[in-house]
């Protein structure tokens, strides 16, 4: 079997056996069995799914991360685990790179990180705490891109994901009869004020950002009862981490002002933070050179700017000295990532594994 045939066979297995975040036990077992067949040493994370493998010799360590979880979503009326995220492709590309490299002489160590729970945004932190990037100086990621970002044959040396965070809030007012609104505290009035507040926040228009309410629940149980209680959620995003922090500060100030304005109790908490990309110029340059050397200059695409997010960037938040970039792969992917019927051209996996092998083999700057 050729390397290309093996990559496609691995992809078929992962695609047909998806597992959701923190449940990737069979996926971990399959990757471990592949490594054993290749006589590659590996170490399980242990109390969580996932593992790391390593080849090569030397003091310096260059690493690549593959996320291994699938989404839980409705497909043709059935709720099921589904690899519409493309992580089946990521695993296959990274294993393909390992196959290309395993018999090559290397002047440094190459570590392969198979990380759980990217879709929940906390798998990278857990892998970091389990030592996934201990001793690592350069870290690379890889991900398929939607067709509107990259077409088949185009490869980008860096994906600039945005940062994102969510807010869960509650309004604790007092119910009242519809005929006597002065006797209660209408939570709907408060939520409408919150909506207006976030729409009145201004930061630099040169920095992409958004803040919006994504859920409102206020129900007094009857049409003639004014509801005192409500729950709401927000989705806040920005291309830069500093802008997201600015948005959070302004929202905090606004919520506190609304509490005083209505003399009502409003509680909230921030959840599921995912940082934006902190792309290393050195790592991106290494990726650029690998793309040109492997596929030719015509295949090199510009850096991708995307409002999506990825927990890959927690590694650089947790370890600022880490030089990292995520390589974007064009594959004519449509209709889009996370669409239940997402499809792409599988030929993209073959060139991508060669690019990954080339960048991982490079002597770090």
Notes on the protein architecture:
- The chain is of the alpha/beta class and 365 residues long.
- It has 2 domains: 3-162 and 276-361, 3-Layer(aba) Sandwich (Aminopeptidase), CATH 3.40.630.10; 163-274, Alpha-Beta Plaits (2-Layer Sandwich), CATH 3.30.70.360.
- It is built from 9 helices and 17 strands.
- It has a 7-stranded mixed beta sheet with strand order 1-2-6-3-7-17-8, with helices on both faces. The chain has a 4-stranded antiparallel beta sheet with strand order 12-14-10-15, with helices on one face. The chain has a two-stranded antiparallel ribbon with strand order 4-5.
- Helix 7 (281-295) packs across helix 9.
- The radius of gyration is 23 Å and the shape is elongated.
- The model has no long low-confidence stretch (mean pLDDT 97).
> Order of strands in the sheet with the most strands?
1-2-6-3-7-17-8
Shape: elongated
Total strand segments: 17
Largest sheet: 7 strands, mixed
- The share of residues in helices is 25-40%
Strand content: 25-35%
Give the helix/strand class. Answer: alpha/beta
Output the number of helix runs: 9
H-E order: HHEEEEEHEHEEEEEHEEEHEHEHEH
Instruction: List low-pLDDT spans.
Output: none
CATH topology of the largest domain: Aminopeptidase
State the oligomer. Answer: single chain
User: In the residues, how many domains can be counted?
Assistant: 2
Q: What's the rounded overall pLDDT mean?
A: 97
Q: What is the annotated CATH architecture of the largest domain?
A: 3-Layer(aba) Sandwich
Radius of gyration, taken over Cα atoms and rounded to an integer in Å: 23 Å
CATH superfamily label of the largest domain: Zn peptidases
Distance between the termini: 36 Å
